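Quick question about two entries, pasted in order.
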Amino acid sequence: MELLGIPPLVAQVFALGRTGYRLVRDFKSTGEHSTRLLGELEIEDRRFQAWGEATGLSRSDWNGLQHCYLDQAVLDILCSIVLRFADISKLVERYGHQKSQGTGQEVETKVAIESISILDYKSLTNLQSITEEVARYREIIKLTQTSISALNKFRWVLADRQKFKRLIDDLHSSNNSLGALSTPKTLAVANSLSTFDLLNTNDPSHLSLISTSSSSSHPELSRTAAFKSQNLLSPSSFSLPPDPIPHQDLVIDDPITPSRTLALLLSKNVPVSRVLIEWKSRGSFSNPISSNASSALILSRIQKLVHLLASNPPHAFRTLSCAGYHAGPIRIGLIFNLPSSASGTSLPSSLEQLLGDRKIVQAIYGGKPPLEARFRLAHALAQAVAGLLLVNWLHKGVCARNVLFFPCKDDASAIDISSPFLTGFDFSREVTDRAFSENSIGLANDLYRHPDHDAGSEFQKSYDIYALGLVLLQIGLWESLETLGGVEKDNEGNFVYASHRKLREDLLERCIQSGRLCYRMGTGYQNAVRYCLNMGIGLQHNEKMRPIAAGSFFSMVICNLTAFSM
C-alpha cells in the first residue's frame, strides 16, 4: 500500500536508522565473544546501508521506492529498526561509565545529532493510519538525543552479550524483511554492494572476523572472506602440496594437445576420477634471473595457486576445484576436477568455439542464445573477475578461450551458457607477487592485450577489467572479437592489425558509438562494456599503480549487469 507522503518519510527514517547503527557500532568489545558480535553487527550495518544504496534512499531519492513492493510495510520495518536502537540506549545506561584515558574524569559530550529532519509533519495531514507511529517517532528522537552523547562513554560488557545478540538477531530479521519487500533485481544489487563493502579490506584479521561472524547466516560471504584472508597470508604459512602428481598416476586422453585435455586420475588417496588438465609451457615464462631460481619461483607460484584453487573457492568465482599439478620437463599441467553435473566423455566447449562455430549454438537454441541467457553469462563472468580482483589475484588470461561450458552428464549435446567456468589460471598471480613476469601466449597475437601494457611491464588489475570488457562485447553481439574488429589472419594464421590501441578504437566506433551494442543489449549493458574498455587508458606509470576505484567498478559493471540478469 502506498500513501501520500510516505516516500520522503521512509528516507528520513532510514537516515535515522543509519545514525543508530553508527552509534551502536562504537561500543567497545571486551573479549572474543563480544568481538564476534560486533562483527555480526557490522555485517547487518553493511546490509542495511547497501539496501539504501540499491533503492536510492541513502541519496534521498524517493523514486527508489519503486523497487519496493509496499512502501508502508517498508516504513514499518524501518521504524522497528530505529526503535531497537532506542531500546538498546536504555539498556546501555544500566552499565557503568567508561573513564577517559589519562584524566580519570568522565567524558561529557554534547548531543551530536546530525541535521536530520526526522518528520515532515505537513506531509502527514492525510496520513491518519500512521498517527500512532508519529508519536513513537517523537519518543525515539527524544530517547536518541538524550543518549547519543553517552553511548560512546560506555563499554559493552560480556554479561550483556545475550541481549546484544538479541538485538543483532532482530536487525538480521529486519534486513531480511526489507529484502523480501524489494524486487529481485534490487535485492541482488544490494547483496553485491554489501559483499564488496565488507571484503574491501586487506586486513587478514578483520577478514577472519567477517568470515567467522557470517559463517551461519551468510555462508558464501564467509567463504569469500576466508579465501581472501588466506590469500593475504605469506606463502610460508600455506600447507603447500609437497610433490606434483606423477606421470604414472595420469592416463591422458591426448598427450600431444598443446592446451587442455581430459585425463583419468589414478590416485591411492581418492577414487579414480576424470579430470581436466590445462598445460603451460615452461618456456612461456621470461627469465630475468637465473634459470634455476626462475624454475623455483614458477613451482612456488604454481603450488600456491593449486592450494588456493583447492581450498573451496567461493561459487561466484566460477572456478574448477584443483586436484593438483603435474610437472613435466617441457610443460606444467594444472589438474582440475570436473563439475559433478558434467559429462567426462568429451571436452568442454569454450566461448571462443561457440562464437566461431554457430552450428553448436544453433543445435541448442535454434539460433543465437536468448537475451536472458547472455545476460546471465555476462553477469557470472563479471562476478568471477570482480571476485578474483577483490581477493587480490590477477587472472592475466581473461578471454573467450578461457570461458568453458561443460556438456551435461545426462545429455552430452546440451550446454548451458549461463553456467560458465573461468579457466586459464596458468598465468595468474597475486597482486603483490612482483618477482618476475610471464610472457602471455603469443603477445603479438593477443587481441585481449591492454593498449598500455608494454612488453615485460607489470600487469595491472585494469588489464583484467579491460579484457573482461572485450568478452562482454562479444557476448552482447554474439560475434567473435576478430569479426567485430575486422581483424584478418595472414597465411601463417597470425592476426593482422595495426595495434592494440587501434583495435580498441575500431571496436568503440563500430560497436559502441554506432549504438549497435545499445540496440542489442540496452544502455546499462553498453555502459558496463564502455567502462571496462576505458579502464586504465592513457595513464602514466605512477597512475597505473594507484588502486582501482573498486566501488565504481561494482556500480558501473556488476550492478548494471545484475539489474538485467535476473
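Here is the second entry:
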Amino acid sequence: MRKTPVGGTKVVWAQVAPADPAALDDEFLIPANGKAGAGILDLYEEFEVNPNGWSDVVALTFTFSRPVRDPRLHVYGTGGVVTEGTERDDYWAGLRLMGGTPATPTFSKVAGFPGYRVTDDTIVPERFTRTRTTTCGVVYTCGTVQVNGTLRSFTIMLRARDVRYRGDAGGPQMWGAFKLSLYEDASDAPASYGAASHILTDTYLGNGVTADHTTVDSVTPRALREDTDTDDAIVAGGPPLVEGNARTYTLAVPVGGPSEAALAGWIDFDRNGKFDPGERAQASAEEESTTRELTWSVPRNVKPGATWLRLRTSATAEDVTRPTGWADSGEVEDHQITLAERVAPAPVERPARTERSDKGDDRDKRDRRERNAHHMFRPNLNNLG
C-alpha cells in the first residue's frame, strides 16, 4: 500500500491492521466479517479545505504480488468532524477510482453505503445535510465495493466534502479506514481429502473459475460441501476411467493464464480417502499451450470402484506440491473417477503334439542299420599261413 498525500496533507496517525479472525461482523459489509482481513486505519490532517466544497486528501494505491481478480474494498468509519465552540466542519467522505494496472478497473456496489451513490468510478453522498449526530451514511461512509478487473494494483483518491456550520472550526481532520478481501476457489471432495483454497487470479482450469464462500472470509483453507463446485476442466461425463490393466494413465487438462503456470493432479488409487504423495503427477510448463497432460504410473494394488481426482493449478510450482492448503493464485477442481477392475490375462494356447501313425519309417531305419553292420570289414582267414 502506497500513500500519496495531496498538497499539505499530513498522515498524523497510521495503523497497519493485520488479519484478525476475531473481528466483529459489520452489517454494512459483505462478507459481514470483512474487517477480519488486513487493512489500514489512518488519521489525516492539514489538508486543503474548500469551504462547502470538495478537496482531495490522499491517493491510496493497493498493490498485489500478482494480478488478482475483482478485489473487494471494505470502507468503514471514513469521514471526519471538527468543532470549535459553536463552529463546526463536517468532512463527508468521497472516493474516486483513479486507475489500475494492467486493466482499467471499475466500481460495483456489493453492500452498504447508505446515503451514498456508487458509480463506475466514484462513491459520493446522495446529498449533504446538517446534522447533530453522525453515523454510517451521515458524514461517515461504510460499505463494500468490488473493484472489477484482474489487477496488480489500483488507486483511489480519498476526498473530503466540507459542510460548514457558523464558521471555520479550525484544522481539518479525516479518518480513513480500509480493508481488502479476495475471492477464493475451494475444493469439494469429501472432507477426508483435506481442503484446498486458491485466490482468484489470471490462472485457472478449463474456461474460467467461479468464486466460492463469497459471504464469509476465512484465514484458513476450507472446502465446499461435497461435489457442489462448478468445475469445467473436465466435461462430457467426467474423466475417462482408469483401465484395470493400464500401467500409466494420461489426462489432458485445459488451463488458462500465464504459460509458466504449474499444474498437478492426484488420484486416490488405493481408495483410502486421502491423496498420498505417490499418487501425484505434475505437468511441465509449455509456452502458448492451452492444454497440459498429466501422466500417472498406475500401481498394481489399484482398488476398483469410484474414487477422487484433484487438479490444482497455480502461478508457482510450490503452491501445488501438496494436495491441500492455500495457494495465492489459480484454481482447484475435484472430480469423481472410476478405477476399472484388473483383468487376468487370457491363457496362451500352445499347439498340441501330434503322434506319428506310420510305424514303417522306424522299421526301415532299423533294417538299414542291420545291413550296414554286415558290410563292416572282416579278416580273410584263408590267407593265414
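Reply: The radius of gyration is 39 Å. DSSP finds one helix and 24 strands in the chain. Hope that helps.
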